[in-house]
Amino acid sequence: MCGIFAISGDSPKAGASVLKGLKKLEYRGYDSWGVCVRESKDGTVFIDKEIGKISTVRRNFPDGCEAIGHSRWATHGGVTKANAHPHQVGKVTLVHNGIFENYITHKKTLKTYKFLSETDTEVIAAMIDNFLHQGSTPDQAIRKAATQIEGRFAILVMVEGISGIYAARRGSPLIVGRGSNQTFVASDIPAFLEQTNVVNYLDDNEMVYVCGKNAQFSDLRTGDPVQKRNIEVPWKIEEAEKGEWSHFMIKEIFEQKETIARVLKQEDEKLLQAMKLLQESNGAYFIACGTAHKAAMAAEYFFADISGRKINVVPASEMPSFERFVNPKTAIIAVSQSGETADVLEILERSKKKGAKIIGLTNVLSSSIARMAHVHLSINAGPEKAVASTKAATAQMALLFLLAFTDVNKINIGRQILWATASSINDMLNPRYESWIRSVAERIVDHPNLFIIGRKSLYPMALESAIKIQEVSYIHAQGFAAGELKHGPIALIEKGTPCIVLGDDQETVSNATELKSRGAKIIGVSATKQDVFDEWLRVPDCNGAQAIASIIPVQILAYHLALLKGLDPDMPRNLAKSVTVK
Ligand code: G6P
Questions:
Q1: What is the reported pLDDT for 581?
Q2: Are 81 and 188 members of one domain?
């Protein structure tokens, strides 16, 4: 939620470079943007900000070797130019990702300041400026302000008359990129990957001052210096770029040709460590949000079927009702692409304090969840930039499938099944398959409603299918457990209503027949073609891992429904990729 990016270096084109880097973070938020350059000629700050997506912006900035910028997903204050970052108060110019929960209390005490926006961010800038007036040095002022902020934040700060850029975090990600003559600070690595893959991860309650190629790290509370290791990230630029593809979403869907197989590289030792925590527990929960939650729901079936273990699946936002059951014998499996989702993080923080054991499955290795977990497993899908999660979801399911086999000492059997699944998905994903699905999309795009049903692990995939279609095509889509149809949802069926039926087992086919008798147009997603299907999207038979293959044609369908409606599937309205606020 919100991308922030700073450069301090020797090139006078820092403004243009920040704009370019921010475009690579646009998936984090895209309702407005802003860039601030410290001008070479006199050290004053130049700010340019606008509402709208940053991707199409072309700008000339004054020369300056330091710049900070922001791409916004509005939380406090509507989408207006005044609310766009950076915010300048007195000598301080600042961008912020996160939420300053107690900002109103502080705003009231800053009586000498005239606030120009409705944001919480402007209050942070005023607090820092106020401490500067009281005689604090910039880093003291930032520390004092930061200790008074309740909530999550990552901030980048420029102070008039002082070279260098200050950055601090608690709860929201910040990564420092080490170039040969310049230093970068960003919410995510793609912002600077073209320049360097050598990074330092800033931890919670840490601060960094960057000036040219130097970076000084310190503890945000005490000011004590902190030593950081330079880490080389294995990402390639092509992985974080669209390349020849028209959108990240379709690129990432096709990357599932490799990402599922990549999960198999997981070390046995790590899987066994995770399973040990689970086996020693007395009560386990999957905690996740959105698509990751649907992957966890599928895993609930995998564990039940494969290892006979019952794991409760709770969306992180609903977990507070059950937290009193968390104790030192509880194991929590947190599933998250970004590893930064605020609802998940909060549950983990509180559960860890109660002694629960945390197993984290994330795609982003440096994420807060990855670092907080007792055992971290990487889903290793490579950067996922489209807001709609695709390859991360199937990699999460593949890893959880493997974990269920680990639970019964049958990792190799799990690997064999997944290997066969990955290879048949590799065959399935080809341009002919995509164009067939596009033709199906053309035949259903004009219907305002769409329903999806599935049974067992395909039930969560029905829910996930609905999310995919809703979020990128804005068609009203709803998923149901196939057996629940006759308890209400069937009343929604009218002549021609498109219904996606996941699976070809006898009971689901009977449910499809019930739908068809009420006029529904049946789109079957299955390994075998059934008479009841009006359209058929073939998927391979995956021997228990059917959920992984079955969601893929629906991802493609959702993508083409969006294109047919003239929408940008990479940037759906109102959504953000990484939801770092509650
Ligand atoms: C947002 C994204 C979804 C994602 C969910 C959870 O809503 O748009 O695609 O599934 O957050 O994110 P996480 O990073 O925790 O998997």
A1: 66
A2: yes
- Please answer whether residues 400 and 296 qualify as being in contact, where contact means their C-beta atoms are separated by less than 8 angstroms: yes
2 carries an active-site annotation: yes
pLDDT digits (tens, 9 = 90+) for 366-423: 888 999 999 999 999 999 999 999 999 999 999 999 999 999 999 999 999 999 999 9
CB atoms within 10 A of CB 81: 12
29/330: higher pLDDT? 330
Question: Which residue among 337, 344, 366 is best mutated to probe the pocket of ligand 1, counting the most ligand atoms within 8 A of its Cβ?
Answer: 337
What CATH number is given to the structural domain containing 529? 3.40.50.10490
In the residue annotation, 329 being an active-site residue is answered as no
Distance CA 61, CA 386 (A): 29
- Mean pLDDT, residues 447-463: 97
Give the residue numbers spanning the domain of 460: 430-575
394 CB under 6 A from ligand 1? no
- pTM for this prediction: 0.85
322 and 444 housed in the same domain: no
Q: Decide which of 209, 240, 271 is a domain's last residue.
A: 240
For ligand 1, the distance from its centroid to the CA atom of residue 316, given in whole angstroms, is 12
pLDDT, mean over the chain: 94
Measured from the Cα of 389, ligand 1's closest atom is: 9
C-alpha 373/C-alpha 358 separation (Å) is 5
Q: How far is the CA of 574 from the centre of ligand 1 (A)?
A: 13
- Tell me: do 467 and 342 sit in the same domain: no
- CA angle at 511 for the pair 505 and 512, rounded to the nearest 5°: 85
Cβ–Cβ < 8 Å for 317, 346 = no
Q: Where are the alpha helices (DSSP H) in 24-87?
A: none
Same domain, 508 and 529: yes
Distance between Cα 147 and ligand 1 center (Å): 29
Indicate whether residue 317 lines ligand 1 (CB < 6 A). Answer: no
Assess whether pLDDT exceeds 90 at residue 435: yes
pLDDT over 80 (residue 301): yes
CATH number at residue 112: 3.60.20.10
Which residue out of 2, 65, 289, 542 is catalytically annotated? Answer: 2
- pLDDT grade for 433, boundaries at 50, 70 and 90: very high
Mutate to test the pocket of ligand 1, among 314, 335, 341, 348 (most ligand atoms within 8 A of CB): 341
Q: How many A from CA of 173 to the centre of ligand 1? A: 15
What phi and psi values does residue 55 have, to the nearest 5 degrees?
-60, -30
